[in-house]
Amino acid sequence: MGRAGCYATGPRDWESLRPGQLHRHRRTTDDLRMAWHEIRSRQFWRAMFSELLGTLVLVSVVLGASVPGPGEAPVGPLYPAVAVGVAIVALAHCFGEMSGAQVNPALTLALLATRRLDVLRALVYIAAQCLGACLGAGALYLALPLKTTAEHFVNKVPMQLNAAQALGVEVLCTFQMVFTVFSVEEQRRRENPEPGNLAIGFAHSAGVLLGARFSGGSMNPARSLGPAIVAGFWENHWVYWFGPVIGAILAGVSHDFFFARSASRQKLVACLSCKDIEIVETASMTGSSLSTVTQNAMRAKQGSKQDNN
C-alpha cells in the first residue's frame, strides 16, 4: 500500500532553502513525479476500472436480493446478508490482485488513514466506487418491474430509532467488518498465502444481519449513495457516510497501531509525522514479522538507484 501524502511546498529560490525545507521540496517533486508516472501506467487504470465494475456488481446484487418479487412479501435481512457475503468473496477472487477489491469508500479511507494507500489512488478509487454504485442501482432500477425504489432500495432510519442510534449501529457494523479485513490481510502476509476471502465475506454478512433492522446495515457509503440518487431519497443520508467512515477508520487505526504484531508507538509517531513507516517497523519487529513497506518508499529507492546508475 502506498504512503498517503504530506505534500510540502516551499519558496522557489532553492539557494535560500534550509536543509529541512530542501528535503521537503525534493520529496514533493518526487511525489509528483511518481504520481504522474502512476497515472500513465496500465495497472493504475485496471485497478480503477476494477473498483468501478466491482462496486457495480456488489450494489446490483445486494439491491436485487433486497427487493421482493411481484406479489411477494418484503424480504428479511437474510437474503441481502447472504448476497453481500457471496458477492464479496467472488469479487475478491476476481479483482483482488488488481485493486484489492475494496469496493467501499469507507474501507478505502481506512487504508488511506493507515498509509496503506496513497492519496491519488484513494481519490480515484472512491470516485470509481461511487460511479459504479450509481450505475449498478440505475441498471437494476431499469430492470425491475416495480418502481417502488424508495421502499426497498434506500437505507433508511426506522421510525422507532433516531439518526444518532442508526449512526452508532453503522459504526459498530463497519468496525467489525474493516477490522476483519485488516486482520485477514496481516495473517495472509505473515502465515498463509490464502487471502481469507471467506472470513471477509462472513464479516459483511454479519454486519448486515446485525444492522439491517436498525439502520439497514449499509457499512458502505457507495452502496447507499447509488440508490439514493436513483430514488431521490436523501433523508438522514449523512448517517451512511459518517457512520461507515468513522467505524472503518477506527478499525484500521486501532488494528495497525495497537493490535497488529508490528504495532508500536514509534510506528504511530512515524505515521502522524508523515515519515517512512518502513524504517520504524523494521527496527521494532521480530524475525517472524513482515515489514509493511510503503509503495512510495519502494519507488523512491528504485528511483534513487536509477539516478545513481
Automatic annotation (TrEMBL):
Keyword Transmembrane helix: yes
One term under GO cellular component: plasma membrane
Family indicated by similarity: Belongs to the MIP/aquaporin (TC 1.A.8) family.
Origin species: Takifugu flavidus (sansaifugu)
Protein name: Aquaporin-4
Major place of residence: membrane
Residues annotated as transmembrane: 44-66, 78-101, 122-144, 164-184, 196-218, 238-259
Location relative to the cell: Membrane
